[in-house]
């Protein structure tokens, strides 16, 4: 019989890639979606009829238990979260409700209705924040720098705790930044590649940016969802860092993206304090040796290739009058 998976956050960047991967592997895929006045399922439009969508919300404990009863999953991937770091300073309580307590709600639902489930929690390199070690591994202590990072650290620890307290097969993937042409427009990679395409097409001239000196370890989302799946196929539940072990500045990102369309970023990028954060994460670089050794996982897309893939995709979209 086909394995069944339930994905929260299926309408997000990672949810769409993970749903594709699991369908390819022959899974029956169920996704939890929030109701809104207008359905915006662009990222999974091409999977319509292949995935089964159900209403539910991380804030509503019973909706989670009901969904587990209805779908009887073998694997649950908890990707839903308020995931944009700047919003977490404007809505810190809501971020805590979704991104921190939402994890406990899901774990409680699993414990009481389907304890045999294999559970994946989407943890983040933002938990390392003001880093205490370079590069960062599974053993590096956390020092989060935003309400988002703090909420993710809670989600991480409660996942470990439920594994140790109730013997659940619960794992936490500590994923570094991962991007794709499906990335939300407010995140820095997509913001840059989309605006570069618009500037190239003569639709605007300037790009307002925040801190160009921040360094990130950027990989491709398609690679990272494969690591999530591999974590749930292990014999014993363990946590893993997933990264590329390369770090680049936002300035390099901007430079490569503009160069792809034959432009000089210095003529278009303007620093706007509105995009500078109250507290910054200056340097992230992940050590993924454990994932390589135990999961047999390697990133397949490197930084320059990733940025150019995103610029090319955005150029096509802008030419076609799409977002
Ligand atoms: P997105 O922001 O693209 O997607 C977030 C998803 O969560 C959307 O489907 C959204 O639904 C859903 N969601 C938000 N709040 C709720 C709620 N209360 N109830 C139900 N669903 C909700 O994120 P990504 O795909 O980029 O990331 C997936 C996960 O991985 C997130 O938890 C993120 O924090 C984490 N992560 C991401 C990294 C990255 O670089 N991308 C790195 C490390 C961790 P809707 O469409 O309705 O808004
Ligand atoms: P991040 O991603 O905060 O690392 O979280 P984001 O792309 O938003 O920022 C990366 C870095 O770029 C700097 N920056 C800007 N960022 C944005 N968004 N807009 C700008 O104009 C801008 N200018 C400079 C930021 O200061 C920052 O240093 C992402 C999210 O996907 C999280 O959910 C996830 O957990 C982490 O990655 C790993």
UniProtKB/TrEMBL annotation:
The record's listing under InterPro entries reads: GDP_Man_deHydtase, NAD(P)-bd_dom, NAD(P)-bd_dom_sf
Q: Where is the NAD(P)-binding domain?
A: 6-310
A single Gene Ontology biological process assigned to it is: 'de novo' GDP-L-fucose biosynthetic process
Keyword check for Transmembrane helix: no
Q: Which GO terms describe its molecular function?
A: GDP-mannose 4,6-dehydratase activity; NADP+ binding
Q: Does the keyword Protein biosynthesis apply?
A: no
Q: Top enzyme class of this protein?
A: lyase
Cofactor(s) annotated in UniProt: NADP(+)
Give its E.C. classification number: 4.2.1.47
**Which reactions does this protein catalyse?**
GDP-alpha-D-mannose = GDP-4-dehydro-alpha-D-rhamnose + H2O
Name the UniProt key words of this record, in alphabetical order: Lyase, NADP
HAMAP family listed in its UniProt record: GDP_Man_dehydratase (MF_00955)
Family, as annotated: Belongs to the NAD(P)-dependent epimerase/dehydratase family. GDP-mannose 4,6-dehydratase subfamily.
The role this protein plays is: Catalyzes the conversion of GDP-D-mannose to GDP-4-dehydro-6-deoxy-D-mannose.
Q: Which PANTHER family match?
A: GDP-MANNOSE 4,6 DEHYDRATASE, GDP-MANNOSE 4,6-DEHYDRATASE
Q: What is the name of this protein?
A: GDP-mannose 4,6-dehydratase
């Amino acid at each position: 019989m086909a394995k069944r998976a339930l994905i929260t956050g299926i309408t997000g960047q990672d949810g769409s890639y993970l749903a594709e991967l699991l369908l390819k592997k022959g899974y029956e895929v169920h996704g939890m979606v929030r109701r809104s006045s207008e359905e915006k399922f662009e990222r999974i439009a091409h999977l319509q009829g292949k995935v089964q969508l159900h209403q539910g919300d991380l804030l509503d404990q019973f909706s989670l238990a009901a969904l587990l009863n209805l779908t009887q999953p073998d694997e649950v991937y908890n990707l839903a979260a308020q995931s944009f770091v700047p919003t977490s300073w404007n809505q810190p309580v809501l971020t805590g409700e979704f991104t921190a307590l939402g994890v406990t709600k899901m774990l409680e639902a699993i414990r009481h209705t389907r304890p045999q489930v294999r559970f994946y929690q989407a943890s983040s390199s933002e938990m390392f924040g003001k880093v205490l070690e370079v590069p960062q591994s599974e053993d590096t202590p956390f020092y989060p720098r935003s309400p988002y990072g703090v909420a993710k650290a809670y989600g991480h620890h409660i996942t470990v705790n439920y594994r140790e307290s109730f013997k659940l097969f619960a794992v936490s993937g500590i994923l570094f930044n991962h991007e794709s042409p499906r990335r939300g427009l407010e995140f820095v990679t997509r913001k840059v590649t989309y605006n570069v395409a618009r500037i190239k097409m003569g639709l605007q001239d300037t790009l307002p940016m925040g801190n160009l000196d921040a360094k990130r370890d950027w990989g491709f989302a398609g690679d990272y969802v494969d690591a999530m799946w591999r974590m749930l196929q292990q014999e014993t539940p363990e946590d893993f860092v997933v990264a590329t072990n390369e770090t680049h500045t936002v300035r390099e990102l901007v430079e490569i993206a503009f160069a792809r369309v034959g432009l000089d970023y210095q003529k278009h990028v303007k620093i706007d304090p509105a995009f500078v954060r109250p507290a910054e994460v200056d340097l992230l670089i992940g050590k993924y040796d454990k994932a390589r050794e135990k999961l047999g996982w390697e990133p397949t897309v490197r930084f320059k290739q990733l940025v150019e893939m995103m610029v090319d995709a955005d150029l096509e979209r802008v030419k076609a009058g799409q977002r």
